[in-house]
Amino acid sequence: MKTQTVLVSVDSGSVLKGARYYKELFQELVNQYNLDSMVEVLETGSLGIYREGVLVSIFPDGVYYEVCSKDDVEKVVSEHLLKGRAVSALMIDEEIIKKNQPTEEAKTSETRIVLRNVGVIDPLVIEEYIARDGYMALGKVLSAMKPSDVIDILKESALRGRGGAGFPTGKKWEFTAKTDSDVKYILCNADEGEPGTFKDRLIMEGDPHAVIEAMAIAGYSVGASKGYIYIRGEYYGSIDNLNKAIQDAYEWGFLGKNILGTSFSFDLTIRLGAGAYICGEETALIESIEGKPGRPRFKPPYPPVAGLYQKPTVVNNVETFANVPWIILNGAKAFKEIGTPSSSGTKVFTLVGNIRNRGLVEVPMGTSVFDLVYRYGGGLPGGKSLKMVQTGGTAGTFIRPDQLNVKLDYDSAKVGVSIGSGVILVMDEDSCSVEAAKVAMEFFEHESCGKCTPCREGTRMAVSILEGISKGNGKESDLDLLLRISDTMEETAFCGLGQAVAMPLRSIIENFREDFLKHIRKEPCPVCVYEKPKKRKTPA
Amino acid sequence: MVVDQTLEKVKDIIEAVKKEQSLEEGDILINCLHKVQDVYQNFVPSEAAEIVAESLNVPLSKVYEVLTFYTMFSTKTRGTFIIRVCNSLPCHVTGGAKIIETLFEELKVGFGGTTEDGLFTLEKTGCLGLCGVGPVIMINDQFYGNLTPERVVEIIAGYRKKGRAGT
Q1: Where in chain A is the domain with CATH 3.40.50.11540?
Q2: Distance CA A422, CA A162 (A)
Q3: What's the pLDDT at A256?
């Protein structure tokens, strides 16, 4: 046993800042100073905060550093590891770390359920997951619980789907469990495509076994013996970690035939997406696994009754699954004590845009936008003032600074602030509402699958009208037209993608109408970068 | 014959994917196409698509329907390096627009275009899930974050050197 451990936070984000290189450098220097018998250098997942540099923690000292260069690494090794003196210049404010650290007190504001292992264990080593009660929930379920007991616990916990729609997970599982079919499926929706969301990526990269364990539990509960994880083709890091984790789980007997010596068998494999946002819609995802273009199906029947290959299918988001082992081990009551009456448990939020601490935090449901932006996010950088926040992803709502006190949960959409997939996109005074609306609509225009007319044509019209307004060619009646388009899409679009377009479009026009009118009156837009008469050069 | 060897390789790939990952019939088409596309450097030629159709017992028209629906696939030759640039709002508000402009100027092509030397194809993509380090681009399977226009120019120059040395 080595006395000190250096944990380098390695994830897709930090690798870009040289995390792998710093890790090697640490090892090299440790060897050079002959500390290798005492110091171990390991990789871990994301600590949840993004700063300029790479986060490194040293245990048992409990000191956190942010290293930005080779010199920083040298300083930490020669001062801290060799001489035992903390390098205060590189240390990170304890408050920020505390907010992101897992604690034993489940009821305080620093609650980690989903991210309990992320940034703590080496995701590629199954033993580390097991050492933190990993696969214990699966063992408990298989040895001491009936399938219906598991569903009862989930129903009692009131866990709701974390992908954005918030459907009660226990109910979903119950629908499938009650169906009479010899073949059923468990699908994990890891086609994370909502702009600003990267929680699923960090869960899969930092704690892949939690997802695997939960899927096996789901299989047992509903009577399914096959599962798929449908993951974005671009998520290379997650694909690698999950593949390794699945392989290890098979070797340890947590997947495959007769799991843990019981009669329960469960096979799990990965399917890749190929760049289509629409495949995050559950029926489109199912079509894609079947080897077809990802166009949504008509509902009903819903997947719990007729999903993959028309068999009963449970489709849950990565974050939803990651909650399950904790609930099984700690009980529904402990889970319900966290959060709000309508929405129990925690939510992982991704803080992005013009915000100081970009990254993700896991906080109880019911945390206000204000706390997320200022308490956890550290406010806006560069002394800029806040223009607007978009909550819930590109399909979420644009809100004004005076709406920040709304507490986010599945009910907050009723007061015009949606929780969606948990994105908090902060935009400072240099942003322009018209531009933001245009970029959001361009995204939907690009991602519309073309199956139904309201979505295919509605998104296109919205973009062209907004383009006109941004160039100073708009009319006041355009705003009513945009609102009418959003109403039409919400009412008539075939699937969730088209229906969701209404939320951002309507909220930005209603909350920032004056900005639109300014463009229509051709008043110079003081902040809009695109308002210059120069057209963007696009050589043919 | 080089061509024949490659086609043999395609068959091997399909067999391997079938054995390793298939739980149900027909569920491996997209995974196969990913692997086949890797062999042909960023596109799936018609002769390879035919083999996929035959081996998986799927009509060729279905294979093409999939190839043309998903943005990660291409039926036409693309550059050695595919540059995917995120044009979603989180990257946009952290300076993404300037990155896109720089790419247009540097490569002298628009979205979907391939540079004359056949090295780069520029594509726009939705969120890559790296908003913590935006703005972000992806070149083949490598990500680059916290970009500035200067850094983009540097990165492109690096790939240009790499690409020219390779040919």
Answers
A1: 126-335
A2: 8
A3: 96
